[in-house]
């Protein structure tokens, strides 16, 4: 990761609909000012957690400014989810050297999920806890064709995005094996996507449910930063 701070590379925005506003931060994490009750709820945080929390909230406020909000506090719900202003849906993510947030009016999109992960492989011993047999087979096949991408980690990231989108609507978390993800490489990219990205789409199907739900999303690999990003925006539709 880079050692200097930079806002809004355009990586995340290129993976989201234009009605969704986003903000990114690349670089070493520093403590950003907290607003109102954010200070109270973060008093017990470790130094590392506090930096992650503050940079995530900074990105969230930057994104919300496009919708006319002036530095609102973003508190934490009972399940550690961000509490957004009324009529707003959004998502926050961070990993080493990268943080981001995406928001929109809930009349535009019912829900949003974003996630970022380092492009590092997951230990094969935990594959069965995260992926189905079909997904494990897919990871092997995609690794042969695109070995520079950690497809197991990308699978994990896509599920994180789906779960972040699912929870605000249905009020409960999912296990990793409750969702199955299939990836697709994009041969024709939109003009707004930076050329340095390797991009594609994914389809997620929820399993072990009385009803069959699915959603679509986008993913990107940023080689220079060894970074994976996944997104989904809209709603989980019954199929």
Automatic annotation (TrEMBL):
GO cellular component terms attached to this protein's record: enterobactin synthetase complex; plasma membrane
Pfam families cross-referenced by the UniProt entry: 4PPT_N (PF17837), ACPS (PF01648)
SUPFAM superfamilies (UniProt xref): 4'-phosphopantetheinyl transferase (SSF56214)
Domain 4'-phosphopantetheinyl transferase N-terminal, residue spans: 46-103
A single MF term (Gene Ontology): magnesium ion binding
Keyword hit for Magnesium: yes
Stored InterPro entries: 4-PPantetheinyl_Trfase_dom (IPR008278), 4-PPantetheinyl_Trfase_dom_sf (IPR037143), 4PPT_N (IPR041354), Enbac_synth_compD-like (IPR003542)
Biological process, per Gene Ontology: enterobactin biosynthetic process
Binding site for Mg(2+): 115-117
Protein name: 4'-phosphopantetheinyl transferase superfamily protein
């Amino acid at each position: 990761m880079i050692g200097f701070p930079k806002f809004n590379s355009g990586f995340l925005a290129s993976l989201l609909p234009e009605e969704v506003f986003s903000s990114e931060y690349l670089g070493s994490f520093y403590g950003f000012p907290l607003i109102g009750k954010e200070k109270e709820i973060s008093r017990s945080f470790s130094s590392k957690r506090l930096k992650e929390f503050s940079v995530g909230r900074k990105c969230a406020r930057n994104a919300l400014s496009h919708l006319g909000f002036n530095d609102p506090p973003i508190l934490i719900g009972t399940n550690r989810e961000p509490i957004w202003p009324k009529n707003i849906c959004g998502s926050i993510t961070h990993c080493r050297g990268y943080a981001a947030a995406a928001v929109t009016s809930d009349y535009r999109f019912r829900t949003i999920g974003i996630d970022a992960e380092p492009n590092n492989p997951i230990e094969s011993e935990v594959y069965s806890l995260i992926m189905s047999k079909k997904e494990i087979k897919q990871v092997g096949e995609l690794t042969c064709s695109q070995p520079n991408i950690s497809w197991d980690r990308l699978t994990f990231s896509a599920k994180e995005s789906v779960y972040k989108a699912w929870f605000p609507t249905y009020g409960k978390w999912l296990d990793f094996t409750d969702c199955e993800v299939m990836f697709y490489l994009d041969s024709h990219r939109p003009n707004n996507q930076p050329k340095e990205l390797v991009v594609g789409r994914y389809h997620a199907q929820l399993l072990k449910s009385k009803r069959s739900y699915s959603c679509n999303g986008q993913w990107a690999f940023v080689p220079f930063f060894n970074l994976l990003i996944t997104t989904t925006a809209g709603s989980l539709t019954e199929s």
